[in-house]
Amino acid sequence: TKNSGRNGFSVYHTSMSPIGRSQVQLKNELWRAIHNNELRLYYQPKLNVTSGEIVGYEALVRWQHPERGLKSPEKFLPIAERTGMIIPLGEWVLNEACRQLAFWHQQGAEHLTISVNLSAQQFEQKNLVYIVTRTLGQYRISPEKLILEITETTAMRYPQESIKILKELKAIGVQVAIDDFGTGYSSLLYLQNMPATELKIDRAFINSIGHKETDPRLLSMIIELAKNMNLNIVAEGVESEEQQRHLVGLGCNIHQGYYFSRPVPPSEIIIAATKYQAR
Ligand code: C2E
Ligand code: CA
Ligand code: CA
Q1: Residues 188, 229 contacting (CB under 8 angstroms)
Q2: Which among 121, 42, 123, 131 has a CA at the least distance from the CA of 91?
Q3: Cβ-based neighbour number of residue 274 at 10 Å
């Protein structure tokens, strides 16, 4: 730990805190991870429960650490964000997700969309639109098949700027989802001006289904709000049949959650041609 003194002196401790040391170490390790191909994407389906069709997948990053095994994003994304490594990491994710989608499209599942999470830093990065356009071009993907997810908190951090960025993304034809909706503090006035295409209800609301102490009107209000704003609505973290039925009753039928499938590696996803046979 370093401490800049008033007179141009810096104070160091002979032993850096374990937190400080491991942060530097982790930054270097993350750099290595990106360049040695240690990152993996897992994919979780978004299911239309009415038609039974998978409409798309959300890409979720993992780190296959050579010694410490498969690490979940909560373990390394905060450090990636603090050290700026989130920028190259995020570019890797976007590229890999688009590469995978192009493969699935080539296999015949041309309807599939891919959802990619953007961190606040990536969203606010000057050349975001350029990178997205370039990646879509590289894999010849129609822009509307890419859904960029930003959290409600990211969107509302600098709402005026967000609206500008979202307009630019809309102009190139990609979709935008507001993620973890309901956990932040949205001004409806701003939300109304955000040209997003999808709203993902945070799993806390889905979790509350069936619990007496929570007000069920909140969930139906969010669904009504999304409908009025012409947004596609996705329920996250659907874990039970009860939750699924309840959501369908409220008019929300695109679900993502363990009840249907956990995130899986792409090797577990099989694109099969469907034949419609007369019976
Ligand atoms: P998120 O974007 O809200 O993603 C959904 C998370 O909920 C995933 O956790 C997923 O595995 C988990 N989940 C899905 N269904 C269920 C369910 O039914 N029950 C429960 N309890 N959990 C469920 P995961 O993969 O560990 O990712 C955690 C967070 O890390 C993500 O939350 C997202 O904020 C972030 N993240 C993941 N991949 C990326 C990435 O490539 N870039 C960025 N910037 N962030 C990412
Ligand atoms: Ca997400
Ligand atoms: Ca979410």
Answers
A1: no
A2: 131
A3: 8
Q: How confident is the model at residue 7 (pLDDT cuts 50, 70, 90)?
A: low
* Residue linked to tokens 């003194």: 5
Q: Is 113 in the pocket of ligand 1 (CB under 6 A)?
A: no
Q: Among 191, 176, 202, which residue's Cα sits nearest to residue 226?
A: 191
Name the maximum alpha-carbon separation found in the chain.
Answer: 87
Cβ of 257 closer than 6 Å to ligand 1, yes or no, is yes
Residue type (1 letter), 250: L
| 148 touches ligand 1 (CB under 6 Å) | no
Give CA–CA dist 198/231, Å, rounded. 5
Q: How many H-runs (helices) and E-runs (strands) does the chain carry?
A: 11, 11
Q: Could you tell me the two tokens for 264?
A: 């899986």
Residues in the 5 Å CB sphere of ion ligand 3: 179-180, 236
* 77 touches ligand 1 (CB under 6 Å): yes
Q: Is the ipTM of this complex over 0.90?
A: yes
Q: Which residues pair with 178 in a beta bridge?
A: 150, 199
Q: Ligand 2 centroid vs 58 CA: distance in angstroms?
A: 7
pLDDT digit string (tens) for 88-119? Answer: 999 999 999 999 999 999 999 999 999 999 99
